[in-house]
Design brief:
mainly alpha, 1 helix, 24% helix, elongated
Length: 76
């Protein structure tokens, strides 16, 4: 079993109730701000990648893809 609690603390002290079966066992407690984490993430579009590759690198990548695809079409 896992316990997950999301809250907004009012001060620097948080009290956590744990299941009885956790008593005497090692447990991990992690505290991190959710505001700093992009949980869902924005879907990227092709426009987000515009300009990332140089023209030369893009051409080399396209050539590599073309060669790979032509290998699929050959007789084995």
């Amino acid at each position: 079993d896992m316990v997950r609690t999301i809250l907004t603390p009012a001060n620097t002290h948080i009290e956590l109730d744990i299941p009885a079966e956790y008593i005497g066992k090692r447990v991990e407690i992690t505290c991190l701000p959710l505001d700093d984490i992009d949980v869902v993430g924005k879907k990227k579009t092709m426009a987000d990648f515009l300009g990332i590759l140089s023209r030369k690198t893009g051409d080399e990548l396209q050539e590599s893809i073309r060669k790979s695809r032509s290998e699929w079409e050959r007789d084995i």
